[in-house]
Amino acid sequence: MRTRSPKQALEAAVDAGRWAPSVHNTQPWTFAVSGEEIALRADTARRLTAEDASGRELLISCGAALFTIRTVLRCEGYEPVVRILPDPDRPALLATIALGEEIEADESTRMLCGEIERRRTHRAGFAAMPVPDRLIDALARSATEEGARLTPVRDPEAIRVIAGLTQAAQGVQRRDRRFDLEVIAWARPPGSNRADGVPATAYPREPARTEPDFPQRHYAWRHGWGTEGAPAETETGVVAVLTTRGDGRADWIAAGQALQHVLLHASAYGVSAAFHTQALEMDPLRDFLRRELLSGEHPQMIMRLGVTFDDVRDMPRRPLSDVLT
């Protein structure tokens, strides 16, 4: 049931869209409100030139913001009417979201809304607490609803292959100064007032190794920032790959929507995700994964899902005035 005016609902949805996950917390989006419609645009100035030359990760991030907006509008009592890539002459315009008919938000939608500002990315190992298979199956259904597929990797050998590819990509990228400089450009020093990037409280100074080892980004490169970490949190967790059948811009946006649906659903049950995009940023390794492990589907995100007791509170967001035009 509608509880607020259309204008208030649109404002709440845009405000919530800022809390979507994005690579290195770059927040590469802007919003515009006109009448009863929101326009979601890519902020291409925030694209990572070394890690994301194609803009794939930028569009996944924006897709996550799109799902957040849709979810909040439903919580506000409106069915969103979405058009993806509505104008070929304006490639930065990724979607428009208009207010549709009045609806009553169901319990699942309200649950997702409650996690938008609580969800956090994890950047270390997990506690020795298993993630129930029932929850993994439910997360897979969440991804399917958005036009993507979430596949938990159960075969130990396949997990070692994915970990090995992540290690190989990390090693190659560490030899390329562009990648290191790009990572540290988005690492915030302690006490920073920046409204974007990864704060020093959000990653360990020296992350404990998982087995097999899934290396994290070197946000602490050449400085002593970061937390001490939780020594007991060394479990790998559940390795999962998010894939799509196609690999165009609309598929990347769909992957972002699926990703956010999965993350919010997982967060409601105390499960966090750690992301590993290194191998997906190198075309030969990404293609190897597609052909050899993923039955021809295109990998859009590699993640580990698990339980952590490390409560990350400080996660900056750009003020609404910066992203709303």
Can you tell me about this structure?
The protein has 325 residues and is α+β, with helices and mostly antiparallel strands. It has 2 domains: 6-119, NADH Oxidase (3-Layer(aba) Sandwich), CATH 3.40.109; 133-306, NADH Oxidase. It is built from 9 helices and 8 strands. The protein has helices at residues 6-17, 56-75, 107-113, 133-145, 156-174, 177-185, 249-268, 283-292, 320-323; strands at residues 29-34, 37-42, 78-84, 93-102, 149-152, 238-244, 272-275, 298-306. The strands form 2 sheets. A 4-stranded antiparallel β-sheet has the order 1-2-4-3, covered by helices on one side. The chain is globular and about 50 Å long.
Largest sheet: 4 strands, antiparallel
CATH topology (fold) name of the largest domain? NADH Oxidase
Structural class by helix and strand composition: alpha+beta
- Tertiary shape: globular
Quick overview of this protein structure:
The chain is α+β, with helices and mostly antiparallel strands and 325 residues long. The protein is built from 9 helices and 8 strands. It has 2 domains: 6-119, NADH Oxidase, CATH 3.40.109; 133-306, 3-Layer(aba) Sandwich (NADH Oxidase), CATH 3.40.109.
